[in-house]
């Protein structure tokens, strides 16, 4: 059997991620034992993560990123531009993208997938030119992203989502939106519109139970509940991804849509506020190579 050809990997760890300050020596041992030469790097002043990846792309064969969903989101444009395969080390709070692909939450086990696996293509979502792995949303989740501080994420983990969400939920009101898709326009009153590329988001929520990150579709749902307490009844379905079966939830699949609101509203992409309505969404099929288990879970 021929000896395995050494690979060169750009290793980027977000030290500000919830578990970013933990030692990853065991991770490095797994990778180096698999003949992966690690080149650790961090961003320069006034440089973002995508720019770092683009700057170092000629020197490496893949990029290994340790952090949460927000860290991966910041790297998306650089990965698309360079074509470098992505290895994920889940070190964030929710790690929803890793869950969608079935990547274990243990960074050492995740490293073993990078060491022995073969990368596969996945889709990305795009809104107003901003790429996202998991979900983009307008309404309740965008308010949550705006108020969930980095300190709360580190201190409380996924519990932090629930604490802040309960406070926002009590004051939430429906807003009017116009949704253009598939040659039609729907006028709705909603608490939240979510547009998903992957399956999981928000520290345990599910866009649609059968969604995958490589199915070529955007999964859309709108929460059109008239009282906040009705949303509590929906929570089990929101976790399973079966909310589309409820009468006060509008759900459909598409490849492109535009959401307009009476006044500009922020759009949350993978936990970060990145743009405003009007928001034009589209699917970007087979945009990024990612090391993941063969069967998504």
Automatic annotation (TrEMBL):
MF term (GO), any: ATP binding
Keyword Transferase: yes
InterPro entries xref list: ATP-NAD_kinase_N, Diacylglycerol/lipid_kinase, Diacylglycerol_kinase_cat_dom, Lipid_Phosphate_FormReg, NAD/diacylglycerol_kinase_sf, YegS/DAGK_C
Protein name: Lipid kinase
DAGKc domain residues: 4-131
Alphabetical UniProt keywords: ATP-binding, Kinase, Nucleotide-binding, Transferase
Pfam families per UniProt: DAGK_cat, YegS_C
Keyword flag 4Fe-4S: no
Chain segments annotated as coiled-coil in the UniProt record: none
GO BP annotation list: phospholipid biosynthetic process
């Amino acid at each position: 059997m021929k000896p395995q050809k050494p690979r060169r990997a750009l290793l980027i760890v977000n030290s500000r991620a919830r578990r970013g300050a933990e030692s990853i020596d065991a991770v490095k041992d797994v990778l180096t034992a698999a003949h992966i030469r690690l080149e650790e790097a961090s961003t320069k002043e006034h440089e973002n993560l995508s720019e770092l990846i683009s700057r170092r792309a000629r020197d490496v064969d893949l990029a290994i990123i340790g952090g949460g969903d927000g860290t991966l989101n910041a790297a998306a444009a650089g990965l698309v531009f360079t074509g470098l395969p992505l290895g994920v080390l889940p070190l964030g709070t929710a790690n929803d993208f890793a869950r969608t692909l079935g990547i274990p939450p243990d960074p050492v086990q995740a490293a073993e997938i990078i060491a022995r696996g073969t990368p596969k293509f996945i889709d990305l979502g795009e809104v107003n030119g901003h790429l996202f792995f998991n979900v983009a949303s307008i309404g309740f989740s965008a308010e949550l992203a705006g108020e969930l501080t980095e300190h709360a994420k580190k201190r409380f983990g996924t519990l932090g989502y629930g604490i802040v969400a309960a406070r926002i939920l009590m004051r939430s009101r429906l807003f009017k939106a116009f949704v253009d898709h598939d040659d039609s326009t729907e006028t709705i009153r909603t608490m939240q519109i979510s547009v998903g590329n992957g399956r999981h988001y928000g520290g345990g929520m599910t866009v649609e139970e059968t969604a995958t990150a490589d199915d070529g579709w955007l999964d859309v749902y709108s929460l059109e509940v008239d009282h906040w307490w009705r949303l509590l009844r929906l929570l089990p379905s929101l976790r399973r991804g079966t909310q589309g079966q409820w009468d006060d939830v509008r759900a459909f699949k598409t490849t492109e849509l535009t959401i307009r609101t009476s006044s500009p509203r922020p759009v949350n992409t993978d936990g970060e506020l990145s743009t405003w309505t009007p928001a034009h969404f589209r699917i970007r099929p087979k945009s990024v190579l990612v090391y993941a288990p063969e069967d998504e879970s």
